């Protein structure tokens, strides 16, 4: 029960029911649009950024978080996780496995900053305190990395809603980045079970549940 009481989400009234390893969360008052709910319009990651957080051999999934950076700008943070949904952040490894945060596009590349765990958690907290719904969109590593085919040199992260429209979530599109502009290509994947509603056990594996 302590995990549940430490789980704080500022947007809407929540009712939480834990059943086994599944955490169901019912949001009574979702916002009017996914971008408004999550506080960002789009973010990008290059292949190198994703490889940096998935290089640990145990990684099978990617977690994407909507956050507000130190300037109050809405963006996205990424980290890899194992089959138990535990993130592989490791500041002591060489090289360190750090969270990556999208900052912008520069010619044909994505600019990201690296964050330690406490900074990434603070970015999530910034979004929550600003009144945004905070979620973790989970994707299999294979589904995202398979988008890097042909001329694809990056992926776009975009806010969406689940199929019922009840919860904000995220989708990922294949893009080609050139001259500071991203062109959408064929290939996309959606997160149909964001946290919430599915957060595994313990839910505190996810930054937005701490």
Order of helices and strands: HEEHEHEEEEHEHEEE
**Termini separation (Å)?**
13 Å
- The chain-level mean pLDDT equals 86
Q: How many domains make up the 3D coordinates?
A: 1
DSSP strand (E) fraction? 35-45%
Number of helices, where a helix is a run of at least 4 consecutive DSSP H or I residues: 5
**Helical/strand content category:** alpha+beta
The coarse silhouette is globular
Please bin the fraction of helical residues. Answer: 10-25%
Described by strand count, sense and barrel closure, the largest sheet is: 5 strands, antiparallel
Biggest sheet: strands side by side, in what order?
Answer: 7-6-5-4-8
What's the number of extended β-strand segments?
11
Radius of gyration: 16 Å
Spans where pLDDT lies below 50 across 5 or more residues: 1-33
Write the layout of secondary structure elements.
Blueprint lengths: L1 H4 L8 E6 L2 E6 L6 H5 L4 E4 H8 L6 E8 L5 E8 L17 E8 L2 E7 L1 H13 L6 E5 H5 L8 E8 L6 E11 L2 E10 L20
Antiparallel strand pairs: 1-2, 3-9, 4-5, 4-8, 5-6, 6-7, 9-10, 10-11
Structure report:
With 210 residues, this protein is of the alpha+beta class. The protein has one domain (31-194). The chain has helices spanning 2-5, 34-38, 47-54, 117-129, 141-145, and strands at 14-19, 22-27, 43-46, 61-68, 74-81, 99-106, 109-115, 136-140, 154-161, 168-178, 181-190. It has a 5-stranded antiparallel β-sheet. The chain has a 4-stranded antiparallel β-sheet with strand order 3-9-10-11. The chain is globular and about 40 Å long. The protein starts with a helix and ends in a 20-residue tail after the last strand. Residues 1-33 have low confidence and may be disordered.
């Amino acid at each position: 029960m302590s995990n549940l009481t430490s789980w704080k989400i500022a947007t809407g009234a929540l009712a939480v029911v834990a059943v086994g390893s599944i955490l169901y969360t019912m949001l009574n008052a979702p916002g009017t649009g996914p971008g408004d709910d999550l506080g960002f319009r789009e973010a990008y990651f290059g292949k190198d950024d994703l490889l940096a957080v998935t290089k640990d051999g145990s990684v099978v999934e990617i977690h994407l978080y909507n956050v507000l950076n130190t300037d109050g700008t809405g963006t996205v943070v990424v980290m890899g996780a194992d089959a138990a949904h535990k993130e592989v952040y490791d500041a002591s490894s060489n090289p360190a496995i750090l969270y990556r945060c999208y900052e912008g596009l520069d010619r044909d590349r994505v600019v990201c900053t690296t964050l330690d765990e406490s900074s990434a958690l603070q970015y999530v907290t910034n979004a929550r305190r600003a009144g945004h719904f905070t979620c973790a969109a989970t994707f299999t590593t294979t589904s995202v990395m398979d988008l890097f085919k042909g001329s694809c040199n990056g992926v776009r992260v975009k806010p969406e809603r689940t199929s019922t429209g009840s919860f904000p979530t995220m989708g990922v599109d294949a893009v080609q980045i050139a001259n500071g502009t991203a062109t959408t290509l064929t290939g996309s994947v959606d997160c149909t079970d964001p946290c919430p509603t599915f957060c595994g056990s313990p839910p505190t594996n996810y930054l937005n549940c701490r």
